[in-house]
């Protein structure tokens, strides 16, 4: 079930009615959410539902042992719990990558080995729910969670269906704190959630899927296109990736609000970032904050005696993990490495922790506009590593961009209506960039006729461009 499918809407309406009308206390509400998560996950990966439930039970049992353990045995219980989660993640997502690379490495030294590649099916959302479990275990180990939730509450946290397949990656403490108490229906949260879902649907179905009609053929026929076409295409793909992923996040957050639960913000208008550090503070926030807490911060403390170079090493390791988290392919690793290396000038100039200056009004300053343009172009080129099939394709793609054909007229058709849709999304997000999402307060003080007229216009565009439910780019992770 995709969040943008009629099947999911039907499923959510039934669950919404049961949740608010029939579930009279927190336990029943949580039972409805768990049942919803089981049904939702079964619709995606029925063969892996048992694996998910067994892993939930195992990590919950270990967390109870962990919180009761003394300091000497605490680290062993935490390692066991993390190992339980990591083993399944390493097997399903990285086993073939390891086999292929060991085989290729041995061949370089003349060893003849058999490449035994397994037909492994990747469980949907495994990277997202695995990080939820590991984060929970680490928070218990670090005594940030002092009271273990019930098995029901923990199961709801891991299997919360709006965020299960593409995030955000919530932390246990704020999430469980909300579901311990009975949720009361709020018309304000309901309306706020609907507006955020509407904006997410517009970004996904209207903007991202429209751009996909251009970028999908471009990546298939890139060898026939000139440099200018590929450069424009890379910028379009960057916008598509943002609209697709943030559109899902908006819908996930919106559906959560309708259930009386606030989940973590995942995007903060990253298209307007002014440097690499600013970008990663605004892009996939739940992943970057998770890795900051559990990877970068411990490493930076470990390497603090090396000064700026220790900080650089910690950041590069952190971003290598970000790249590898996305997939078991070398182009993802290089994607992470390039992002890490982009921090080096900021660190050497002592500007890593400095916040960028942003204009309050409608018109950006010249410096802000310049920084936004440079950052946008830089990440448009970097995201090519995210989109290609392998490093060979990436090399050919970059080679064609940085050739004399870059100065030729683009040789691929570009629909004007797509440019209009992109402009509409970016313009509205620029105007509302100091809010949580574009429609949070937009037109709130205008007459109801104007406000609802705008909402109906978005609904009209959604139905106009909706053909069939298409998957999300990040669902593959």
- The 3D shape can be described as globular
The number of domains is 3
The overall strand count is 0
Quaternary assembly: single chain
How far apart are the termini?
16 Å
The fraction of residues in strands falls at under 5%
Report the order of strands and helices.
HHHHHHHHHHHHHHHHHHH
By DSSP (H or I, 4+ residues per run), the number of helices equals 19
Instruction: Report low-confidence residues grouped into runs of 5 or more.
Output: none
State mean pLDDT (0 to 100 scale).
90
- How does the major sheet shape up? none
Look at the helices and sheets and give the structural class: mainly alpha
Percent helix among the residues? 55-70%
**Cα Rg:** 23 Å
Main traits of this protein?
mainly alpha; 3 domains; about 0% strand; globular
Report on the structure:
- By secondary structure, the chain is mostly helical.
- The chain has three domains: 179 residues, no CATH class; 208 residues, no CATH class; 68 residues, no CATH class.
- It is 67% helix and 0% strand.
- It is built from 19 helices and no strands.
- α2 crosses α6, α3 packs parallel to α5 and α9 crosses α17.
- The chain is globular and about 65 Å long.
- The relative contact order is 0.10.
- The mean pLDDT is 90.
- Belongs to the membrane-bound acyltransferase family.
- It comes from Kaistella antarctica.
